[in-house]
Amino acid sequence: MRYQITGKQIDIGAALQDHVRDELGSVVQKYAERPTDAQVIFSKNAHEFVCEATVHLSTGLTAQARAHANEIYAAFDGCAEKMEKQLRRYKRRLKDHHRERPEPVAISEAPSYILAGEEDAGESEPDTLQPVIVAETQTRVPSLTVGEAVMQMELAGAPVLVFRNEKKDSVNVVYRRDDGNIGWIEP
């Protein structure tokens, strides 16, 4: 597994990097058979240290955790505990999907746009109904089954996930509804 351990405006020593590799490696190996890479970012927010970890698995899933504490090692340990809890919660489902999927998930690129919000909506009508594009980026759209998409959305803590349905070869959306259930849009 590849590790990228960085600090935002703080120095990350070799001892902390070794601790992160050992602890995170044991957590991930315990619950996932083929992790591909992990990214751990340390930062400081006022008097607290913040640790954010992202682990990409060969099944296409991404597990994320974030924790903060007064000590940098405690911040990482809290983050590792959250990661372990997530992976433990989905262990059975991850293993089932892992056996069905002999190769990593296919990822396709799609353009993503950020549109300007309405600033003075109550004062006057806009000159045109075309939205103003503020930024354009590339977004990754994974090819998943519906079950994997729901699992990925829950692991990431995202309210919505756009994916390519492997069975129908069409773009689908899963989202968290206000009533707590999961919605699935299949055009």
TrEMBL record:
Belongs to the HPF/YfiA ribosome-associated protein family. Long HPF subfamily. This is Ribosome hibernation promoting factor. GO terms for cellular component: cytosolic small ribosomal subunit. The keyword S-adenosyl-L-methionine does not apply. Required for dimerization of active 70S ribosomes into 100S ribosomes in stationary phase; 100S ribosomes are translationally inactive and sometimes present during exponential growth. InterPro entries: HPF/YfiA_ribosome-assoc, HPF_long/plastid, RHF-like, RHF/RaiA, Ribosom_S30AE_C, Ribosom_S30AE_C_sf. Pfam families: Ribosom_S30AE_C, Ribosomal_S30AE. Keywords: Cytoplasm, Translation regulation. The gene is hpf. Its main location: cytoplasm. Associates exclusively with 100S ribosomes, which are dimers of 70S ribosomes. Interacts with 100S ribosomes. It is found in: Cytoplasm. One of its GO terms (molecular function) is ribosomal small subunit binding. GO terms for biological process: negative regulation of translational elongation. Residues 130-183 form the Sigma 54 modulation/S30EA ribosomal protein C-terminal domain.
